[in-house]
Amino acid sequence: MKNVKNLCCLGCGREHGREGMRYRCSACGENLDVVYDYGAAGGRINRERLAADRNLSIWRYWELLPLSDRRWIMPQQIGWTPLYRTSRLEKQLGLNSVYLKDDGRNPSASFKDRASAVAIAKALELGFETIAGASTGNAASSTACLGAGLGLSPVIFVPRSAPAAKVAQLLVFGARVFAVNGSYDDAFDLCTRACEEFGWYNRNTGMNPYTREGKKTVSFEICEQLGWRVPDRVLVPVGDGNIISGVWKGFRDLRAVGLTDRLPKLVAVQSCLSGAVADAVRSDGPVRSCKATTIADSISVDLPRDGLAAVKAVRESGGEAVTVTDEEIVAAIVKLARLTGVFAEPAGAASLAGLFKLREEGRLEKDETVVFLVTGNGLKDIQTAIKATGEPTLIEPDLKDFIKAWEQQNKNQ
Ligand SMILES: Cc1ncc(COP(=O)(O)O)c(C=O)c1O
Ligand SMILES: [Zn+2]
Fold first, then answer.
1. What is the pLDDT of residues 365-385, one digit of tens each?
2. To 5 degrees, how large is the angle CA 52–CA 54–CA 59?
3. Which of 45, 148, 409, 412 has a CA positioned 20 to 30 A from the CA of residue 265?
4. Among the bound ligands, the one closest to the CA of 266
């Protein structure tokens, strides 16, 4: 926190003090962004110190986080997820350098742990006793998981349609769970009203300025894991747009403190059945609400709650938006699993679907270094995966029956 100067509105640029908890700009209602004193932070962080640091988690980047008290660090390992070179995928795509960042390896099995870790630590630092959040599922299960690590029972609002595995996580970690008979957007608005009514800390994506600060750590890791090389392109699945705005913040932070000297192009990957950010990027206009219906529940969002920041991130980076169909997302789950051994939930595989699309349309150079984010583990939603693969062959416990089935399967291969 010593390195934080203030909070700046992403809409009108107005500066707000860093004390207490602020959600949105009091002048225009837009989301806020944490502003750092990069001179001060840069004096305390460098490549040698990081190389010597054995703390392999997001907390190694403490100087670029908006916190002052290490007491609220939870015991689980968050971040420092693997960055894999994917040679078989490279071959299939006809590209020379493709990496995947497997964020399904976080404690609650999604990228959202980066955000929840910082947002929860901030809440406790500010003295809040109750943390609440609405989510398509992952932000909630992450808040519940990391909250449990500190003995907390957060209040959670999820749409009734959230996949069973995510709801199971919430319940097992002991959160107070409310399944809202409505969409994610309904759950979000209800949570916001409840926080106002009861004075609870609101962890909601976009309006809480600290989630972006946790999410940006993925960019720190990507560069460090690449030996401080900055990739040419990073593909990010987008719903509310908070991950992609965090990814952009991370790359800019690194350049600002002198750890790197360039920036990548960002590609926002959305479902064409939930494409509000992509529409805004393409039309050069404002972010407008749509009626989201994609099977990729984590990126099924009517009104992106960090839409302005997401569009800015894509434009400032000189990147683009790409939309993919549900069929392409489901196919990408299977391709990813078979070519890399990583199982992703639909939203997590959307980035790969976007990569195939960009390549097919000739919008990627062969020599570019590309990173795509896998943001959620496939065990979060097995129903969708099984729809793509079909059921296993049922046999009797009998060798003859097996041989018949084996030969039949060989014919179908
Ligand atoms: C697995 C996964 N991927 C992508 C996203 C999209 O992130 P954002 O809503 O910040 O754009 C989410 C958000 O819930 C997610 O859980
Ligand atoms: Zn403003």
1. 999 999 999 999 999 999 999
2. 105
3. 45
4. 1
